[in-house]
């Protein structure tokens, strides 16, 4: 029986099991110095680029990163969505891809390619590529990034996301404070489908986070908001989001 036609309860049970298995899978760590890394966490919302992907509901998230060469890794993340209205009733999103990071003196260069799958919904998947540069300004790490999803029917055109992130650790504490701002734009061919990622056309999002890391445990609280207003602002307005998790 195709996955999309399974009863909703069975899909949810399978997704929870998959999230736990994905995050707790810890293959032998001896191949590369960094080793395989994995995390599992719970969050009060799945908000990306100022938009809630889970209709404002809590989610489970599992991720794993496997180094395959110097600076290059294969990555996977699974997030429960429990019937997201933004993504055609999808029960989850699976982000699969690879990333490359290289440190050159005080500069950190990165590139990635990723495909987003949406179990429980048909015709919703889309891919994007991205790159970024990071550097230090005093005690702060600053990252400038760009992500581009070329024209695809599932997103009604193309999508370009530009963002800036600044992060600083609080001296003598396990706390980190960060702030970010981003801008979404792109060509629109199908306004209905384009509203998935850009419900108000070109828009800005911003946020501030405080994160805590102690051993393998981490927690955080994030304020997220966007410039989206009017009837398209549902699940896009100001929100405090909490999370707690474990690195495996």
Automatic annotation (TrEMBL):
Q: What keywords appear on the UniProt entry?
A: Signal
Q: Where is the signal peptide?
A: 1-30
Q: What is this protein called?
A: Uncharacterized protein
Tell me the organism. Sphingobium herbicidovorans (strain ATCC 700291 / DSM 11019 / CCUG 56400 / KCTC 2939 / LMG 18315 / NBRC 16415 / MH) (Sphingomonas herbicidovorans)
């Amino acid at each position: 029986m195709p996955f999309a036609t399974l009863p909703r309860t069975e899909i949810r049970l399978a997704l929870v099991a998959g999230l736990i298995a994905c995050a707790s899978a810890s293959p032998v760590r001896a191949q590369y110095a960094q080793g395989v890394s994995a995390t599992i966490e719970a969050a009060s919302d799945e908000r990306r680029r100022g938009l809630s992907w889970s209709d404002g509901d809590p989610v489970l998230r599992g991720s794993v990163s496997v180094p395959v060469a110097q600076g290059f890794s294969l990555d996977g993340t699974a997030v429960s969505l429990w019937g997201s209205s933004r993504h055609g009733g999808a029960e989850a999103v699976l982000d699969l891809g690879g990333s490359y990071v290289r440190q050159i003196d005080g500069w950190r260069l990165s590139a990635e390619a990723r495909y987003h799958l949406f179990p429980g919904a048909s015709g919703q998947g889309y891919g994007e590529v991205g790159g970024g540069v990071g550097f230090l300004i005093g005690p702060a790490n600053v990252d400038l990034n760009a992500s581009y999803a070329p024209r695809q029917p599932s997103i009604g055109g193309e999508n370009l996301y530009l963002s800036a992130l600044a992060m600083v650790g609080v001296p003598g504490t396990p706390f980190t404070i960060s702030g970010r701002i981003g801008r979404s734009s792109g060509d629109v061919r199908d306004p209905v489908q384009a509203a998935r990622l850009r419900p108000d056309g070109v828009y800005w999002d911003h946020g501030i986070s405080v994160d805590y890391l102690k051993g393998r445990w981490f927690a955080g609280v994030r304020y997220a908001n966007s410039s989206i207003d009017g009837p398209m602002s549902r699940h896009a307005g100001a929100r405090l989001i909490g999370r707690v998790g474990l690195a495996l």
